């Protein structure tokens, strides 16, 4: 009730600790944690010890109690595409790798330099530290997702299934959630596991899916296995839900590792970077970006 009713800022007002400790203090039973909350939250945090910051847990729980989950019909790439559509013409360069952030701008891998008094580094933690060597970033979590295609859905509803055995994080028939994700007459199943695509793991996943969906999975066609290194920051307590993007005069860094590990956290950090850049320029700072 507290998470549902109070403002999001309330999560910052309590002393931080692990999610596991917070659930114990709240009187949640060991069985409920083992059978429901740990399996579910492991897929949210990408770790199965519930050592993630309780502040972040309360923020996530608030979002889930007050809202619903969804996927863009045109894929997650529709989010940056929508942002890009609002930009003036000629300001966005794609396929232009950056070698370094310099004192005068940005050095590209082709040897040319883009001069800029203000530079905002908006990347994952690994690339952020490559471009800004004095930056401190948290450890990260890795996840692998297997995609299988079959002719008939094994579950005709948009349900996320979690696994209390820990063999997988979660699975769902993605085409039931977003019908545009598969051709007509095909069901697309998405299944995530912690860590990388280890030898033999794909077959073990299929065996577990046969048990969960109560069907024969021997004919399921694996269409992809996507490993995302550094998919989320490891948000160990005490974890600030937001922090400044200012690194030094004219240099800023944003990303979910500067806020909360999520798409929402990344966008909130980017919005904060924009506000701080505008505020600093308004104080007679940088004249060009």
Automatic annotation (TrEMBL):
Domain of life: Bacteria
Organism from which the protein derives: Streptomyces atratus
One Pfam family hit: Amino_oxidase
The name this protein goes by in its record: Flavin containing amine oxidoreductase
Segments forming domain Amine oxidase: 14-277
Molecular functions per Gene Ontology: oxidoreductase activity
InterPro entries cross-referenced by the UniProt entry: Amino_oxidase, FAD/NAD-bd_sf
